[in-house]
Amino acid sequence: MAALTDQTARFNTLKSLPAPVVAMMALIGLGVLFDNFTNAYTQFVMVLILTNVVLATSLNLVNGFTGQFSLGHAGFMAVGAYTSAWLVTRPELGALPDFLKFLLLPIGGGLLAAVAGYIVGLPSLRLRGDYLAIVTLGFGEIIRVALLNSDSLGGARGMYGIPSTEAVPALGLTAFSAQFAVASVWAVITFVTLWRIVHSAKGRAFLSVREDEIAAEAMGINITQTKVRAFVISAFFAGVGGSLFAHSVKYLNPSTFTFTKSVDIIIMIVLGGMGSLTGSVIAAVIITILPEMVLRELQQLTGIDLRMVIYSLLLILFMILRPSGILGRLEATDLWKMTLGRRKAEDRKVEGQRVEGKA
Amino acid sequence: MTESKKETAQDSTILKVENLEVSYGGIQALKGLSFEVKAGEIVSLIGANGAGKTTTLRAISALVPYKGNVEFKTKSGTVTSLSKVQQHEIVTFGLAHSPEGRGIFPNLTVLENLVMGSYSRNDKEEIAKDLERCFVSFPRLRERSKQKAGTLSGGEQQMLAIWRALMAKPSLLLLDEPSLGLAPLIVAQIFEIIKDVNKEGVTILLVEQNARMALKVSNRAYVVETGKISLSGTGKSLLDDPRIVASYLGGH
Questions:
Q1: pLDDT, tens digit, for every residue of A257-270?
Q2: Among partner residues B91, B112, B115, which is closest to A220 by beta-carbon distance?
Q3: CB A76 within 8 A of CB A119
Q4: Structural domains of chain B ordered from first start
Q5: Any B CB within 8 A of A329 CB
Q6: Hey, are the CB atoms on B88 and A329 less than 8 Å from each other?
Q7: Which string of b and e fits B142-180 if b means at least 16 CB within 10 Å?
Q8: Angle B175-B177-B180 (CA atoms, 0-180°, nearest 5)?
Q9: ipTM given for this complex
Q10: Contact A286, A311 (CB under 8 A)
């Protein structure tokens, strides 16, 4: 018995501990692999996919899991992006090895974005529904206009020539695969952190706020504090996403972070399923690839820009046929478990028939 | 002798509400409502729609702002004025609230709902025991523990709501309309459970429109009319009171 529990314990640690590490290694490996036969454009899209995964999963914590409607994700992303772009030029950081520096920069961007999230969240999260949406929309615009008018950050001209990771021969990484590795590490950190949060006992507080605020309050949950917490965590990872974005496009302009950018991310979580992290990942991949690779080809073939038409059609079709998004509130793992369960049930049925037949 | 008797009587008061006033915008829902609940009792507030029963419970749990005083004897035995503490702390004092319309979390599983009920507690082993007690008392919840709570029937949802509130291990349970929208047979079951819970030592403050049922199980009851207490007495005496019979029990 003891040996058995010991074994299962070992199996569990084996199962739970390295999964994120395995995922990171796999992604980094993918980067190295793709490095050989892809052009710079494809490589840029690959980093963008991971950036969007970070942005979509983090927004899902607020909009999907906590049930608040934030329209200000691009604002937090901008804070992270500009912070990171400013930090990278600081001579104080010069002592750090290049790769490590870029690995750590998202923390700086994330922290300032989290502070912004706290400042915006504390007063506005007492509001509900549409009001919160409007306040967060306003916040995003304030950030954008402030950036537009701050000369030290480039103003309307934007920030040029933002440094990016360079090749790390010691690790066998080229400039692209190093950049992709940084993005991979952060995408996995974001996903795993959020996954652990929403599946933890305390994290269920977020879900209960979404389900029924009055009941949650009656359970002894501090509603405003819970919402602010979700908002700050979400803003942190939006800042991380912004930082990844800044060092992959190497050029920042306030007009990148308009309301439409927030909407893009919202479309990802709506399509993936509000309240499904794996859904967000799937949707982030699709929504990034679709306009960049498929629709662009289509435009070259037809000569007409059908991007927005197809985009809108897709959304309309989704809202009619599957309003809860690709996965709804389920995770990909739930689907896996469900098919496993069904298969087992079928096996049992077959077994039962066999026994009957013999009798 | 009489002196000490008086003291024990006072000691057994678990909840004391004095001059409770609540306004929603310009409308005053409660106009100086006072009553008290003694430890071990089932006390019900009965009254018509809009009389202020639900508002009273919400005020006690600090879910709405109010004027007046609400004193509660916490688990540790100290009397605390609930107007001076933060809303989310109230549960830790031993006061649980099962809100109107059940208020279960429909997209969480039955088990998750129950665990949410113990959110304010840290004693894991005791929580596990209470969970077991719940499953023993209402096995249907064990059968469906992995099912989404929204897929339960109305009666099961109400049972879940009551048990979720009990998972906070309260000394006083506020129950808001547990019979709402349920079939008579299930209402009877719910009231059986209420009696059982009370026997285990949980004091109950019940808000009901189903006055007959409520009065039958209650030790005492208060009649709420337009934000004030208009009548009070033991459950039995009110059941026979002609005024009550005429207004709330169907009048014949």
A1: 998 899 889 989 98
A2: B91
A3: no
A4: 13-248 (3.40.50.300)
A5: yes
A6: no
A7: eebbeebbeebeebbbbbbbbbbbbbbbbbbbbbbbbbe
A8: 145
A9: 0.80
A10: no
